[in-house]
Structures are given as structure tokens and as C-alpha cells.
Write a structure and sequence with these properties.
homopentamer, about 350 residues, alpha+beta, seven-stranded mixed sheet, 11 helices, rod-shaped, disordered C terminus
Chain lengths: ~350, ~350, ~350, ~350, ~350
């Protein structure tokens, strides 16, 4: 419901807080630049827009409906209807949420509508309030400024997700836990959501930047192209986060299996050593009357010695099978495959030398 | 077999329950709008359609055959043959089923045929019965109304599936069971089925919305485009459900493996502590005559003390190896990676400040 | 080697069993329709075809070679060389096998060649023998009839595979065995084989149906398009079988891991209860002279009572950790996530009500 | 270095072993067909080619460089530079290696260069030495003959890999071992290598066969198309080997997990039966003075009987839980899902009967 | 900040170390070739470039911003703005890092900017200092030289990664450890990073090589095409490294599972043999008064003999179940599937013989 309206007349005067009549006059003058920003869109806003601007019913429906719509651009001849998405930083969810910004972009007006207050739009509003600068280069540049701010504000989230991925990769190798699994799942779902928004956003900005719509002047193309490049970069980074989450999930399983082997080896060694010895002790604990060894002078000490010898020999045997060594691998750091990408300078110089010799220069 | 026929004459009169002769007259007048809706299509319906409307044999075959056909649109010059799919809510299966709606769309007639009663068609019928409104804008808008209702009615199913995915993700981390596996499999199969229908449906609606067929008037294009957007959104949501099911399956395995580690650690610790001690007790249970320790005054208490000491020391050793701590991790909640996407406001403001400084506005 | 030749003259007479001279005359008359069907193709057949029909060497090589060739259509100007695949029901293998049907299709002749007797061709032959009907609409319709029969006869195999997939999905959750693995592998390989054949077959039929080749008359396009639709459906179903096999493989692993947890829990509980108790009994089985408890009146009964108490307490502790409950989960059926896709009627009606209110109709 | 030169003059005379002058004359006559074949290419060969034929520096660099280059075709106007790959059968590696064949193809000359002797080129050389036949149809046919031989010689390797895949699939189910893993990894890497070569090779041959280059005469197109078809088939088979290797890897894991369940069940049953009984024996081995049962006449026999009864009852209990049956499933062969694709003849006949009834023929 | 400027006048004189005025004159003369190389780009450099060269604000922003930008080429009419990536060998990270090289390429000038010293640019600078040769063929060739050196210098890194992959594959089968997991993760992330850079780099070079931009002369196309081929090769190799990392991850899991089976079998055999025997010894250790066997003369020896016999029989039974053999498989090398791709020469010769017989040559 709350909305603000600005009108920059052809003479460069900035008016604020227009009532419905003024707004209509400004709209129908087909001069200057009219900006209406609606926050927290309702059905009445829809009727208001239809009544005053005559926008197409379906566009207004997309605009006021609380459902999520993919980024897109629809050309209605006199104006474009653009949906772009940004991050909603007021969201309480621990999975990334995106919010829509709906834009009606005509040669002399911009109508922006969103369901939650948007930082990015707020920063533009503030500067318009100050000196009207973002409105002075025309409707296409005003829309550009809003979309650019929206897209750039996704970056801090990507950075945060990247930090989390770093933490997950560390944990997955060195202490895989159930909470790691949860963090991986959340990261993955967040990347999936971002991807679902970024993919059509990329297409939308591509269309906006390549001269398909006359409402966007030729001078603005390179600017829209610049946002397009940013979206591509965001999508790339997001895709790489998704790959890292996938890797982490697969690695967690392997890491847990490794750990289990460690545990099982301890158990097996213990059982293999002590079960037979317990049998031995059990045999000499039997109560048969005729057990000649029992009366031997050194029988007890022979058995003790045998038990001691078995323990020592078993240890050596397991050692020979590298199990004991295995038991300690957790602490060993194999350096053979570490720092993998250091190429020796000499090799590189030789390589470059080879190139320098090529005759084609 | 049961079918209903409506005819809206060029003068705007609505007639119902036409017999075969009237229907033929209406069809041949090439005026007004004739709508025939057939529920539970049989071979006789096929012959009826061929006799009265002269539709192509192959289209009728697709229409009456009980086999499932992918969404498509065939252009027969005078009319289009369209197959679209919706959800059949009367189905007893716990895997999502879709049902076909077959449409013959001409400039002055619509023939719709389906094997089960469809909610979406029913709602249109009801409103036609009331005031004939859905028929007043022409054949292409009547077809639009039916397809739109059909597509929109997929949404509650997607919502239900989304709830289930939420439940599965919870269960998979906190209590992975066999029934979770079953639920994952069913969810996955449902998304696969929906996908197989939605992908060609999207293509079909794309073709209907871009002016390829003159039977669909230019004014209707944006409306078909709107359904197209809905199908794209449904497919996106469905795809994301499928990704979530895949993740859940991979996570279940990891989660079960984690749980097994827990169990194995308990077992290993128990065995490693008590097997050696049992051997000790066994040794002093041997019946050798010459066992000097047996007659020692404090021998028994020394052994008891030793056993107690071993238990304590073993506990400490396992503690040092962090196993005991591990045993309890199930209850610990590591908060380091939680709430992952909260970006500190200051950081965001700085970031926006940086943007505001950019000279290009 | 065995082959049959039919000639339907321009006057509508059907001749059978033509010798080489007659066949040549018929071929060179460029009238009527000549059909030669060769079963179990050999090198001599190749020479025969080259001598009498002058087909291109490479086409004949593909035709007589025992190697498998992908479906394709080659345009030699005067005639088309078409390879399509069907199921060989005489095959003994338990992995789906496809067989080639090679067709030379000219304006006035069809030459079909295959290495094994084909049901589909057989059914056409039989009807030609009866009344010549499949030949009366021309060469392109004869070829259509054969390809259509071939493609439709893949359906029973898909149905059979679908039954098997159902069985596998059941087994994978409730009793995963080694033979289940084998069945999955075989199903997967069968779907892969079908896919390798269906993908180019789809492309081949697409080309045949879109008017690329003048030998196929315009009237026949819609018929070829119909086969194309069938191939698309078969490929869809096959793809879904493949997805189900993949899911089953991943689920089997998870299911086996779940089962192992069950087993390990039994083992761990048994060990954790009885190993310490055995130590206790062992302690009182030691033969030290000075063991005051041994002479206590109620020592034995105290120990017995302690053992009983430990068993009871341990059971309760494991119960508290939900392990005992776990042990029984195999039989429990969690109904929370079952019947997942039933949407409550009221919800649906509301939803439809919402649609009905939309002003655009 | 070693090279052979052949010149077939316009009159049909074949000359061998040309010196540099003769070769130059032949090249500059722009008549007949000159073929130079260089084996084991060196830098000097590069200079030789640049001096005598004036080929572009970059093409020569690709030709003499020991690095691997992807299959491609470069059009230099007067001549084409083609790289195709075949199998090097002299390679010692147990992973499939491919070798390059570099071809310079002009209207009146072919220069072929390769780093190792190639069987396929050798067979052409031999026939040229005999009667010059492969050179008589022109440069494009000579190049065709070499590429065709090269591509066809990949087939025996694919056959060998297919045998290995068969062996792996057998082993993976019935005796999964570490060496099976190794074989899978090697097979997978071989298919990946082949794929990396076959994919661009397919594109290269597609371009050569579709009339893009005037140096390749129209008559030769169908022949190049034929090689293209072979490459497509090879790639299909290779892709299917890769799928089988992937399946085998996933199955190995499941199979090993199944096997582990078997082992764990044996262990659990043994522990669950004998640990409690050992406790019982331990109890009656205690040395308390007041243990009334010890003096009972039949106490010992009662205990013996109890132990026997427990073993029998435990067996029955595990049997009831189907574990004993499980223990034996390794040998059982469940036939329910075997021979999966046999369709009963009656069903097929009915199905065909249904088709035959269709009115459209 | 540090930058070097070279000017090769139209007369062929090379001047170095130009001040701002000279540089401006050189730039505005629109003759000869001006090269400015900026290392460690700062905001001031951006202003400098805008002031003296008048480059577009957005291009300069991309150039000076410390964020990573994907490879791309923007056409500003008078000049191209190109971003390409190479490896930064001074990086300390053990995951592959790439660095940007920003190029402004006009008909008579090249401005290169990078944030760290680049080996590849350094080698060009050195040769320009010597004799100016890389500048003598024009701006497009100078840019080519830099991009070529940059791309070729990625090769040593790929070689190093390939060595690591080799080591990982060895370790994964013969001694899978936690550090192997870490190495796999790092290798995978490195390949992902390279891929993200190489994919757009490939597209960028494709555009530069196909004559889209008139600033790049026709003579230079084949040279840019050559870099394009190198990028394709690098991407292929990188993709194959990624596949190998994926395989290694999957194999590690299987390998660890195999190893665990080994361990579990040892444990199970030990338990199955010694637990029952310990029960036996325990039985005869009971203190019942009436245990007739105890007074038998040979009772003790019978029990001893029975224990020995059980051990022997158990060993044989496990042998019959192939477990003992299994225990040793670690050392066995199954040769059946090794050296998989050796095709017997005779088979190959026959195959070639078959080809030679084909009549089409």
C-alpha cells in the first residue's frame, strides 16, 4: 500500500508526493519522468494501476499476486513489464530467499512494485530525494539503476555462502557430523533457489541489453549489458557453490566410511588377540581331574609367557599388515599430493623459451 | 459416453442439449460458437466425431485410445487438435497421475474429450450453464479458459509434494528409516511423471502463444503466454522437488553411515575394555597348582584395583581420542554453520555505499 | 535368402512369386507397386539387389552387413534407404535386443530386408496375400504400415519392463538381494539399448514426416507424424524406466545400509550387556585364597541379582536411546508421509473458486 | 623422417620414390595425383613441407608437434588440413591410446603424416604399390580410403572393451574385488579418451561429407557420409561402454555392502547366542561357597540342557526373522525377475491383431 | 601503478618510457603502434586511461575493479575491450588460481592491464625491449602474442594436475586415506575453476577468430583460431581431469568398503571359532559337584582334541566358503581383465583384410 511518487518535469523540476490527479496529468503529459514506487502491493494497488495507467490485466495480476514469478520481460508496445529478483535480507529463513521487483517501464514513466521493502530501491529513493540525480538520465537509466543495485546486492550473500562452503569442506574431511550434513543440504537448496532465479534473470537482461526493445535507448544498452555480465558472474559463482556442495556430500560419505574402517580395525585386532587367549585361560580353568599340566611346576608361568608372546607376535603381525600404521594415519599428513599446482620455475621458463622461439612472431 | 453440447449463436443465444441434427447445423453454420464436451470417451464417440465433424482419423484415434499421449498440438488446417494434461484428483494412486484433455479447436467450435471427469472442465461448464460467459469471447478464449484451469489446478499438488519434501528432509537427517526411503522414491517418481508431462506441455503452449496458428486470435496470445508462464513456473518447482528428492536420497545414505559409526564406536570401546579384562580374570581362574599370586594376601584386591584402573584409564584414552565426545555429538548442535545466509547489516550498507559512489549515475 | 515378391499392377492385379525377369520388368515399368521382402539377408542378396535395382553400393553394404546400424534415412534421389529398428521376440537373451529392418523406398517399389523373421512384416505379408490391401495406397503407405507395426510392437516389451521395474522397486525396499542387483543391471542395460535405438529412430521419423522427401506424398505425412509421436512416447516411457532403475540402484544401497544398522545394533547391545557381566562372573571365578565375598552367605545371590538388574537397566537405557524401538521399526509403517498426493477436496474447491473470480473471463 | 612418395600421372603411370625435384615438378604440374606419406614426423619434415608445398606455418606446426591435437579440418583455400585419430595398436599402455593422422588434401595431392606406423595407412600403401588402385579415383578418394581404414580399425578395440565390460559385470555381482575396481577405472578412462577423440571426429567428418569444401567432389560425399555413420556407431557403442562402467561402479558398492551384511549377520548371530551362554557357564564357575545349585544332583545336566535349548530356540528365532534364510540367499537364484523381456506369444499376437484391425489401411 | 609504454612509429622507430604528453601525441597520431602495459592496476590508472584514451567508463571499471571478471570481448566501435585469463604462478594457494589480463585493442594501440606481474606479458616485454619484433606486425598481432603466451602457459599446470590425478588413482585403489580425499577435493575444485574460466575464454577466442571485429585483420584470423584450438584442447584435458577426479571419489568409497569387508571377515571368523570354544571351556570350568566327565581319565584330552578339531574343521568350512581365499585376495592379482585393450594381431589383420576386399576402391 505505501507508495511514493516523484515527477521530474521536462524543465528539470522534481515534485514529490503527487495526488492521483497530478499523477494522472504527469502520466498523460508524456514528458519528463514519472516514478511511482509501491511497497507491499495489494489488490487495491492493482486496481489503482489499471485505472490510472491502463496496464494490461495479466501484468497487474502478476504484479499483485503473492505467488513467486520467474524473472521475465513482457513487451506491451507502449511499455515493458519487467520482473527481476533480488535477495530479501529481512527474511528469517536460513535458506536463501529471493524477492521480486516488478517494473513497468515506459518512455516517460517507471512504476516499481515489491512486496517487502528493498534495500536497493531504498538507496535509489534516498538519492532521488536528495537531488533527483538517478532520474535525470531518463526512464531506462532509472530502471537500470534499480536493477543494478538489486543484482549487486546478491554478492554479499554469495560471499557468505562461499565462507560456509569453506567451513563445510574443512569439516567434511576432518570431523564429518550430522550437522555438517544439514549445512550441506541447506547450502545446496540455497544454490538451487538462486539458480532457478538467476537463469531466467540472465535471459531477461540479455534481452534488455541487445536492442530488442526501443524503449531502452541505445546509450543504455552497454549499461544493461554490464548488469548482464554481473548476473553471469553471480550464476557462475553460484554454480561453483553447488558443485562444492555436491562434492562435500560425496566426500562426507567417503570420509565417514574411512573413519569406520579405523574403528573396525581396532575392534578386530582386539578380538583377534584376546578371544583365543581367553580360550586358553578357559582351558586351564576347567575342572578335569586328570590335567597333567596343572601340576607342572612352571605350567602357570609357561602359560603367562605364551600369552605375553602371542600379544607381542600378534602386534608384529598386524604391524606387518600395516594395520598398526593405519591406525595412526589420522595424524600423518601425506605431503606427496599436497601443494599440487606449484610448477617449478625452471620448467615454466623453458616452456616460455620454447614459445619465444616460435618463428611466427 | 456422457456428453454435453452448448451452442452460442451469433446473436448471443445459448442453447443446450442439442441433438445430432441441431449439432450438425450449428457446426455447419460456421457462426457463433459450438462446444461439445465428452466425458469417458469410447470408440462410438470416435465414430460420432468422425461422422459429424469429419475430424482426421488419426486425431480421433489419439482421442479415444486409452493409452497416454504426450501434450501436443497438431494443425489440420481447419482446426487444431490439442492434447494437454492436468492432475486427476480422483486417482487412488499415491504417485501423481495426470489425465489428458483432448481439444479440437476450430474458429467456431470447440470439442473437448477426456476419460475421467475433470474438475477444471466442470468449473467452466458450470459457469457456461449460468450465463454462458466463458463462451462469449470466442473459441480460442473458451479453450484458454479450460487449459488455464487445468494448469492452475496442478499447483495444490505441487504444494502437497513440497510439504512432503520438507518432511522427508527433516526425517532423513534426524531419523532415517526405511519408510523415508519409500517416501523419497515415491516423490521422485511423481516428479519424474510430472516432468514428462510438463516439458512437452510447455512446448505446446509456447507454440499456441506465439502466433503460429491463425485460429488463435492475436488478442488471445498474451493469455496463452500467461499459461505458458505458469507451466514454466510449475516445471521449475517440480524440478526443484526432484533435486530435493535426489539430495535426500544421497543424504539418507550419509546419515545412516554416520549413525553406524556411532554404534560401532560403542561396540569397539566395550570390546577393547572388557575383553582384556576378561582374559585377566580368566588367568586367575586357572587351576594350576603353582600360582604364587593366588596365595598373596592382597592379590585379589590388586586385581580388582587393576581392573578398575584400566576402565578409568581406557575411558580417558578414548576421551583423548575424542570418541567419547563423539558419542554425544548426536545431541550437540553445532551453531557455527547455522543461519548461514544472514549478512551483517553494516556489511550490506557498506556495499551499497560503494555502489552509490559509482560515477555513472 | 528366402524372399517373396509381390507386384500390384497399375490396373490393381496382384501377382506373386515373380522370377528375376518379371521382377525386372515390373521394376522398370515405373508403374504400379513392386514389393520385395528378403529375410535373412546374405551377400548374394546384395549382389542380386545391385544387379536388378542398381542400388548404391554403400546402401547395399549396410543392408547385408551383419553389424548393427543405427536408424537413419539416406536420400539417393530416386529412392530412399531407410533403416528402422524393432524388437526381436525370438531372441533368447534376457537383455532387450533390437533388429533392423532395411527399406529401399522408391515411387513404385519397396524392398524390405531383415536378418530374422519379423512379426510386424509377417502381419503385413499375410494381409497382402489375402487381398493386397496394404499395397493399394502406394509405396509410401506400404512402408508406413511396416514401420508402424514395427514401432507399435515395442510396446509389449516396455510393458514387461515396467512390470519388472515395479517388482524391483518393491524388492529394493523390502528385501534387497544380490539378484535384485542383477535385475536392476539388466533393466538398465535394456533401457540403454532401447534408448540408443529410439533416439535416432525419432530423428529419422521426424525427417520422414516433415516433407523433406518428395517420395513420401503429402497425404502420408500425418501418418508418419503419428509414428513419430509413438516413438516419442516409447522413448519417454523408456527414459522413465531408466530413471527408475537408477533410483532403485541408489535406494538398494541405502536400504542395505539401513538393514546393516539394524544388525549392528543387535550386536552392540548384546556385547555391551554381556561382556561386562562375563567379566563379573570371571572375577568371582578367580581362585585367590583371600576373596572375602566368596564366603558371604548371600554373595552368590547378590551377584545373580546384580546381573539381572544390569540386564534390566541396560534394556531400559537402550530403550531410552530409542534403540529397542529402532529394532522394531522394520515392522512399523509410518503413515505420516504416505498417500502423499491426496489433496483435500475443500482446498481444491477454494483454489478453483479463486480462479473463477478472475475478471478476465 | 622415413617417407614414401607416389605420383600417378594424368596418363595413369605410377612413379615411386621421387626425389625433391621430381616431387616439386609433380606438385606444380597441378595434374595427376601426388601422394607423400611421412612416418615419424620431425621438425625437418616440417621445413621440407613448408619449402616444397608452401603450407601454412600453423598447419605445419600442428603436424610436427608431438602434442595431441583434436580432430579438425582447416580450410586454407587451396588445400584442406585434416586431423583424424585412430587406435595405435603398438601402444604398450593398458588404457586405450589414439594416434593422429595429419592430412593435407589438395585437388592433386595428398600429404599424410603420422608419428607412429599406422596399420591402416600401411594397408593402403601396400595396395598402391601393387596396382595404384586407391589413387585412381582422385585425391578425395585416397584420403577417404585412409580415413575409412583408420576409423574401421577402432572396431576391434571396442569389441575387446565390450568383452571386458561383460567380465566386469559378472565379477561385480558375483565376486567384487579390488582388481575389479581397477578394471572398471581403466575401462572408464579408455571410454573417456575415445569419447574425447570421437566427438570432434564426428563433427569433422560431418563437415567433410556435407559439401562444405569444393576439394571433395560431390561423388565422394556419400562415402564420407558412410565414415560419418561409422563414427556415430563407434561413439554410440563407446557411450554405452561408459554407461556400463558407471553402472558397474555403482553396483560394486551395493554388492560389497550386501556381502558385508551377510558377514555381519553371521557375526551377530554367533555373538547373540554364545555371549549369554558363556555368561551362564561363567556364573556356575564362580567360587562362592554358598551356591545351592552346585550340589543339586542334576544341576549340571539342567544347565547343559538349557544351553542346548537356547541354541535351538535362538536358531529358530533367527529363522523366524528370516536371517538364516538370508544366510543362504547367496546360493538361491530368485527366478521371478529373471528372463525379464520374454513376452508371451499370445499377448503379442493379440496386440498385432489389434493393429491389423485399424481402419487406416 | 607501475607501467611501461612503447611506441613504434610508422617509420619503425621504437621509443620507450613516454611521458603523458608524448603518449597522448602517439595515441592521437593514429599511426604506428602504441603499447601501454599497466601492472597492479589502481583507481588512478583508471582515471589516467579515461583522461588520455577516453575509454568507456564501464570498461575501465571492469579493468580496475579487484573482482574477478569472466573472459569476454566488448566492441566499443573504435576499440575492443578484451578480458582473458591465465594462471598466476606466484599464487600461494594449492587450488589453481587464474588472473585476468585486460586488453584495450585499437587499430594503432594496445593497452594491457593486470593486477599481478604476468610471466607471459613479461616475455613479450623482454623481446620488445630487445628488438621491438612482437610490435612490428601490428596491434592485432601484439595482442595475439600476449594471449597466446598466456594460454600456452596453462599447459604446465594441466600437466602437474595430470600427475596428481595419476597419484590419486594409484592411492585410491591401493591405500585409500583421508589425505587422498583431500587431494581429490582440491583437484576437483581446481578443474572446476579452470572450467569456469576456459568455457567463456573459448567463446571469446571463437569470436575473435571468425572475423566479427574489423580491428582484427583477416591475416590474423588463423592465428587467433590457433589459440582457440589450444583453449579447446586445454578444456578437453581439464574436463578429463574432472572426470578422473569424479571417478576417484566414487572408487575411494568402493575401495574402502572392500577393505572393510576384509576386516569384518577376520573378525567374524575369529568370533565364530573362539566364542563357542570358550563356552565349552567355560562349561567344564563350572563347579557342579556331579559332573561325571570331569573324572573321566581322558576327558581333558577329549576336550582338547575336540577344540583342535573344531578349529581345523572351521578353517576348512570357511575355506569352502572361499573366505580364507578372500582374505588373501589383497595380494593376488587377477590377470583376466588386465591389459584389456591388446587386440591380437591376427584378428586385426583379418579385419583389415576384410576392408581391403571391399569393392568400392
Amino acid at each position: 500500500m505505501p507508495f511514493s511518487a516523484y515527477y521530474l518535469s521536462a524543465e528539470g523540476d522534481l515534485r514529490r508526493g503527487l495526488d492521483e490527479g497530478e499523477l494522472r496529468d504527469a502520466f498523460e503529459s508524456r514528458q519528463g519522468l514519472l516514478w511511482v514506487d509501491i511497497c507491499d502491493t495489494t489488490e487495491e494497488d492493482g486496481e489503482y494501476l489499471e485505472r490510472n495507467f491502463g496496464f494490461h490485466h495479466l501484468a497487474i495480476e502478476d504484479c499483485v499476486s503473492p505467488l513467486v514469478h520467474s524473472p521475465k520481460v513482457d513487451d506491451f508496445g507502449d511499455y515493458l513489464f519487467i520482473i527481476v529478483h533480488g535477495i530479501n535480507y529481512t527474511s528469517e529463513s536460513d535458506i536463501v530467499q529471493t524477492t521480486e521487483l516488478n517494473l513497468f517501464l515506459g518512455p516517460h514513466f517507471v512504476v516499481s512494485a515489491h512486496n517487502v521493502p528493498l534495500y536497493s530501491v531504498g538507496s535509489i529513493t534516498k538519492r532521488v530525494e536528495e537531488d533527483g540525480r538517478p532520474m535525470r538520465r531518463g526512464a531506462d537509466f532509472l530502471a537500470y539503476a534499480m536493477i543494478d543495485a538489486l543484482v549487486d546486492n546478491v554478492m554479499p550473500t554469495i560471499d557468505r555462502m562461499s565462507d560456509i562452503a569453506e567451513g563445510i569442506e574443512e569439516e567434511v574431511i576432518h570431523s564429518p557430523q550430522r550437522s555438517t550434513l544439514e549445512a550441506i543440504l541447506k547450502l545446496k537448496r540455497s544454490t538451487l533457489r538462486l539458480h532457478r532465479v538467476m537463469a531466467p534473470q540472465r535471459e531477461t537482461l540479455n534481452r534488455l541489453s541487445r536492442g530488442e526493445f526501443p524503449i531502452i535507448s541505445e546509450k543504455a544498452h552497454i549499461f544493461y549489458r554490464d548488469i548482464y555480465d554481473h548476473v553471469v558472474r553471480l550464476e557462475d559463482l553460484n554454480q561453483s557453490l553447488r558443485d562444492r556442495a555436491d562434492n562435500a556430500l560425496a566426500t562426507q560419505l567417503s570420509s565417514v566410511a574411512n573413519r569406520q574402517n579405523e574403528i573396525m580395525k581396532v575392534l578386530s585386532i582386539v578380538a583377534a588377540i584376546f578371544l583365543p587367549l581367553a580360550l586358553l585361560a578357559g582351558i586351564y580353568g576347567m575342572n578335569f581331574e586328570n590335567m597333567p599340566e596343572l601340576s607342572w611346576q612352571w605350567g602357570y608361568f609357561a602359560v603367562l609367557g605364551f600369552i605375553g608372546a602371542v600379544v607381542v607376535i600378534a602386534m608384529m603381525w598386524f604391524g606387518a599388515r600395516k594395520w598398526i600404521k593405519w591406525l595412526t594415519w589420522g595424524r600423518r599428513r601425506v605431503s606427496r599430493l599436497s601443494r599440487p599446482f606449484a610448477v617449478e620455475p625452471e620448467k615454466l621458463i623453458d616452456y616460455i623459451g620454447h614459445i619465444a622461439k616460435l618463428p611466427h612472431l
